């Protein structure tokens, strides 16, 4: 299968979508700034504490330290300001207008939901702490694997939001009830599109995908330019397309026109 054929499955509603930090690029948050990626959030936390930025400290380590030093309430306030989306781009809106079989994201923000609303589509945000009820059978949900900004409260910050070292240690994806839904979705989807998503550090998802060697042929990574090291890792799990999300959006629109004109 090539990318052009994969796009047909997207338009037929038979494709699964995974969103990483790269998808949210360009979205505007409550601070009227572009939403931050992991590195930029780390820099922000150091700045808030009046400390020089140390790139050797991972986000989960500095987040835990920030929580101890500045308090859980302040961390929560900062996260809400950073990841509550007020404005999305045309690219976001284009990608989210299609009938995806299901949407998964590692992002805390609500860019996917806001872009869907712009298209008159209401998608329900779900986290791994939600019970498996009728929701699991619906297409119109966005499953937030690392937590969701609107559900964040002080009492459950470390348990539900994958940010600090403590939160990552509490539960793995493989131990969660939603993993059954994820495995079934991956198995049944004709195509799986990853946008701005790096599998390099997502060990749980790597294990699920690699268990079936047939998955590789139907997986496409839209991550822009990828360096040689990441390419070696990612190519084990799927095809790498040298495209950005805006390129994908344009290709989808073009493919949609072609399919309509051909009847």
UniProtKB/TrEMBL annotation:
<dbReference type="InterPro" id="IPR029035">
    <property type="entry name" value="DHS-like_NAD/FAD-binding_dom"/>
</dbReference>
<dbReference type="Pfam" id="PF13289">
    <property type="entry name" value="SIR2_2"/>
</dbReference>
<protein>
    <submittedName>
        <fullName>SIR2-like domain-containing protein</fullName>
    </submittedName>
</protein>
């Amino acid at each position: 299968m090539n990318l052009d054929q994969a796009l047909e499955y997207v338009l037929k509603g038979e494709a699964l979508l995974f969103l990483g930090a790269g998808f949210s690029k360009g979205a505007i948050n409550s601070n009227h700034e572009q939403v931050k990626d992991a590195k930029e959030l780390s820099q922000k936390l150091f700045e808030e504490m009046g400390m020089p930025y140390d790139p050797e400290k991972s986000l989960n380590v500095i987040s835990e330290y920030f929580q101890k030093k500045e308090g859980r309430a302040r961390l929560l306030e900062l996260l809400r300001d950073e990841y509550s989306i007020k404005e999305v781009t045309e690219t976001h809106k284009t990608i989210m207008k299609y009938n995806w079989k299901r949407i998964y994201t590692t992002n805390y923000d609500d860019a996917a939901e806001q872009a869907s609303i712009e298209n008159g589509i209401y998608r329900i945000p779900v986290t791994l702490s939600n019970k498996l009820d009728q929701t699991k059978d619906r297409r119109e949900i966005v499953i937030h694997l690392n937590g969701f900004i609107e559900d964040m409260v002080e009492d459950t910050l470390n348990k539900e939001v994958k940010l600090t070292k403590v939160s990552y240690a509490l539960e793995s994806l493989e131990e969660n009830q939603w993993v059954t839904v994820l495995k079934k979705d991956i198995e049944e989807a004709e195509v799986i599109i990853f946008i701005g998503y790096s599998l390099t550090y997502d060990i749980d998802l790597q294990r699920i995908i690699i268990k079936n060697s047939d998955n590789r042929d139907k997986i496409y990574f839209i991550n822009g330019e990828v360096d040689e090291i990441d390419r070696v890792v990612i190519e084990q799990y799927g095809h790498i397309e040298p495209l950005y999300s805006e390129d994908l959006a344009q290709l989808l629109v073009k493919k949609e026109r072609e399919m309509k004109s051909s009847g």
